[in-house]
Amino acid sequence: MGIELIAIVLLSAVLAVVLAGYDQRVKEINSLKEEQEETERKARQQALRIIEDARNKAISILQQVTIDTQRQKELLDSQVGEITQQQLKEYKQYLQKVSKEIEKGVEAQAKDYQKILEIETVGAEKVVAAKIEEGYIKAEKDVEVYKQKLMDKAREEIVVIIAEASQELLGKTITIDDQTELIMQALEEAKKQHVF
Amino acid sequence: MSSDIQALVQTRRDLGILMSQLELLEQSLYKTGEEHFDAVVDSRITNDIAEMIKRDLSVEKGQEINTRREYLRELKKTLLSIKQIRVTLAINPTRKLIEKIHNKITRFCGYTVILDIKVDPSLLAGITIAYEGKYLDYTFMKKWREFIKQKLEKISLEMLEVKR
Q1: What whole-number distance in Å separates Cα of residue B86 and Cα of residue B103?
Q2: pLDDT band with cut points at 50, 70 and 90 for residue B13
Q3: CA gap A184, B138 in Å, rounded
Q4: What are the tens digits of pLDDT across the range A65-91?
Q5: Do residues B89 and B11 touch, judged by C-beta distance below 8 A?
Q6: ipTM score here?
Q7: B145 touches chain A (CB under 8 A)
Q8: Is residue A36 part of a domain?
């Protein structure tokens, strides 16, 4: 019984020690949990702060960039305006110069053209006069030729009319003996002309 | 034969008649009875031509066909080789006038010719001759026209003189 009691006491002591250790460990765990939660909270707060700071910084940067862009734009506009004005000025001067040169060239060419035109006009007048003269002579010749043709035609027609009119009269008055005689004379004439 | 031909064939018309009769005779060489060569010569050929053939061939019974055929061929060949002269007259010529013209031209040429006669009353009188590419006009109408033309030209010149 003693042993049993000793064993029970011993076991109870051990149990007490174990329980005390367990309790200690639970407390430690709880403490660690709290620490972890606190750390997480702090970390979350820290993160939120960082994000907030970053956002604010970003907004600030954006605002700064916008401002800079506006300034750059204004500056660029100003510079472009200046350059444009300068270029326009130069261009205007160049145009004036070119215009004057063209004016001079055109004036010179116009003078040359005027001279050529004068020469050509005089030449053309002479040519036209010659052509008119030539045409007049030709027309006169044509009229003469036409008149001659008309005369010839009229003569031919008169010959035909007279010959036909004579035919009726002469045809009846020429006897067979006259016919024979005329034919024989014609043959003699042909012989003289070496027809045979 | 040539002298007979000269007398018998003076115009193109004569030539046509003679050629058709020679054709008839050629066909009769191989026939008998009324269509026999001798019968045709007596009955259907012009007297002058028949006499010439009889004289040239001395037609007798039994004479060789080949001789007759050869004679006819030669005669046709001779006729076709005779030169032709185209003459145009103002009147329809009598046989006598044709003979006169033919004889004269034949004498001038030195060989027999055949006259191809045309008639054109508008010539009034005279003759035109077309021979070996030559054409000559010896008509009264031509002379008459030339005369009138000359007169008219003279009148025209005189009128021009008056104008000037």
Answers
A1: 15
A2: very high
A3: 10
A4: 778 778 877 887 887 778 778 878 887
A5: no
A6: 0.77
A7: yes
A8: yes
Chain B residues whose CB is inside 8 A of the A179 CB are 89-91, 97, 125
Number of C-beta neighbours around residue B113 at 10 A: 19
Decide if B151 touches A, using CB distance below 8 A.
no
Please name the residue ranges forming H helices in chain B: 2-8, 12-28, 37-43, 47-57, 65-81, 95-109, 140-163
- Do residues B79 and B15 touch, judged by C-beta distance below 8 A? yes
Residue A25 and residue A22: Cα distance in Å, rounded? 5
Distances (CA, A) of B156 to A156, A161, B108: 13, 17, 43
CA distance B8 to B22: 13
CB contact under 8 A, A170 and B100: no
DSSP string of B85-103, one letter each residue: EEEEESS---HHHHHHHHH
Residues B136 and B97 in one domain: yes
Q: Domain residues for A20?
A: 2-140
Residue A122 counted as domain residue? yes
Q: Please compute the mean of the pLDDT values over residues B99-128 and round it to a whole number.
A: 92
**Does B151 share its domain with B103?**
yes
Best of A182, A185, A188 to mutate (most B CBs within 10 Å, chain B)? A182
Probe site for chain A from B152, B153, B155, B160 (most A CB atoms < 10 A): B152
Quote the distance between the C-alpha of residue B39 and its chain's center: 28
Chain A environment of B123 (Cβ under 8 Å): none
Specify the number of domains making up chain A. Answer: 1
